[in-house]
Amino acid sequence: MSEDLRTPHAPVDPEADLPVVLEPAGALAPGSVTLIIPTFNEAGNIAELLSRLAAALPAHLPCEVLFVDDSTDDTPAVIERAALQCAFPVAVLHRESPAGGLGGAVVEGIGRADTDWIVVMDADLQHPPHLVPELVGEGARTGADLVVASRYIAGGSRAGLAGGYRIAVSRGATWLAKGLFPRALRGISDPMSGFFAMRRAAITGETGGAGGTGGTGGTDRTGGTDRTGGTGATGALKPLGYKILLELAVRRRPARVAEVPFVFQDRFSGESKSTAREGLRFLAHLAALRSATPLARMIGFGLIGLSGFVPNLAALWLLTHTGLNYLLAEVVANQAGVMWNFLLIETLLFRDRRRHRHWADRIGRFTVLANADLLLRIPLIAVFVGSWGLGVLAATALALVTTFVLRFAATEALVYLPRRKAGHSDPS
Ligand code: GDD
Ligand code: MN
Fold first, then answer.
1. Which fold has domain 3-270?
2. Ligand 1 atom with least separation from CA of 105
3. Is the Cβ–Cβ distance between 91 and 65 less than 8 Å?
4. Are 370 and 344 in contact, with CB atoms under 8 Å apart?
5. Is 9's pLDDT higher than 50?
6. CA of 95, closest atom in ligand 1
7. Distance from first CA to last CA of the chain, Å, rounded?
8. Nearest alpha-carbon partner for 396 in 384, 412, 413
9. pLDDT of 132-177, one tens digit each?
10. CA of 139 to the centre of ligand 1 (A)
11. Nearest to 245, CA basis, from 375, 322, 149, 158
């Protein structure tokens, strides 16, 4: 990927290089901030955004702005020009290949930041710039690692969310996400928000955050049993599409969260880049987050396997009605179920592990394993009945469970794990 980081207005603040003093929770100087703003063709919003930010940022809050841009128009040039008027540092990172979309852009920005706080906001002025100091201030006051600007608490609203349809979709998505991640999203009323402040240490896992000591307000969530600090069990950030806050809340589990109400404004200029496709990416993102552990993946694998009965039986019905011999039809119909399972497993379960093998290789291996499962079951039942003395039903149930677990393990190992290179093993 070719990319260039241009800083038209070089960071000149000498204070920024001083050692960071650990602030006690409740201190009013919250430390320095990187404002990460993802842009995709937002030329018409830049000047207004920067001027409102200039008006909003108080002198005691050293702040630099980093636009992470995937535009196909002249947005980067417009930013560079507008930056010359700014009293704070403004940089543009233009990406030639927009990996991960909006979420991927934010993660790239986070990787470049070196400040205590990171604030993420949209460029279209739907997120009021005057709230930036308030988000960081609330974090400093309460000791929270994450402060979310929420439309769903008293004082907030979604005025700018056009139409009943979008409101319903947004509500449904929130409900679904909170249902799937009740603990990770505890204390976050608006996990779909794209406007939030987070301590950088809580994202990188460097210190485990400064929160939880004597702050007032916020939701302390350290009591949970599923906290995985840093790059623990939940691993590296792999955002998919728009919901970067969801990604951070679920994979990083900030110990303490707080919220600040906000009114979602109308877009200042241009139009939304969100599409129906983005909705599908959101579902895939939820599935990827939910299946981060082997047990969860195995459950997903089982549920997908069960759903495969539908295309299997449908194909069987179709084939027998065209007059095909029923045994032959069984074999062919089974392949319909296998293909259905393959597609769902590829998109929902192993999406980020597809790159290790060519798709034809994956399909071939998956199909062999799925059919081997059937072949293995009969001799296994014979052993369970003949040598172990189990009843036929119990033997069949045990064989089903055994071949299922074997098939799951074999699918992970033989289809979706990185190949072992001669001489050294892959760390992932
Ligand atoms: N770099 C980059 N790459 N930026 C992008 C991309 C991309 O592929 N797609 C969108 N953006 C930028 C836009 O330029 C804008 O600054 C911001 O991300 C949000 O995009 P919009 O297209 O304005 O999104 P929206 O208004 O439909 O959705 C916003 O509100 C939702 C709540 O209803 C976002 O904040 C969502 O995250 C949020 O869930
Ligand atoms: Mn928008």
1. Spore Coat Polysaccharide Biosynthesis Protein SpsA; Chain A (3.90.550)
2. 1
3. yes
4. no
5. no
6. 1
7. 22
8. 384
9. 999 999 999 999 999 999 999 999 988 766 677 888 888 899 999 9
10. 24
11. 149
